[in-house]
Amino acid sequence: VPISSYTAPSINQYYLTGLTSLVGTGSDPTNFGNPVNSLDIVEIAISSGWPAIKWWDWSGGFTGDAPVWKLPGTGMPYTGWTQNVNNIPWVSGLTYTIVSRAQDKASNYEVPVNTRTFVFDITSPTAKVNLPQEGINASANSLPVITGTAFDNVGLNRVELRVKHLTADKYWNVVMNDFDATLVSSAAWFSYSTMN
Length: 196
Hints:
The chain has 196 residues and is an all-beta fold.
């Protein structure tokens, strides 16, 4: 049975901020005599995935109800192939699945097909401090906790904080548990300890 694989996007790229081309390979390892020459074609298809599964029609939209297979634009005989996808209007927050299948010269298709799923995300997350309250007139004689909220359209990885003593011009050092005059602003961020 022939096989196909991807080199771009790579297997560890689940979140993408851009994708202009698909790159992959094809072979027929069951033909030990010549795994290259026994490969016939590689076909690819792209699904818009969740929340509405539609397939890219290769003419401008996700309109297909079933996979719309296409031969890659370059790479014949497809042992190493590339397909330009610069014209696809990726939507931030949506999940997409790329599917490829190889076929050998005996008309055997790759089973199961090879898939690569990713989330396209170019939307920045937001964060807000609720306590202490914002404003020059806000004051407190104690601050046991700092609370806030954060949001992202895909999912949050972590929230980081930075606290500065304006009068002393020092940042809070979470390791020293004190304000530190030697700590630069870029190194003063620390992660939250609890998030509900």
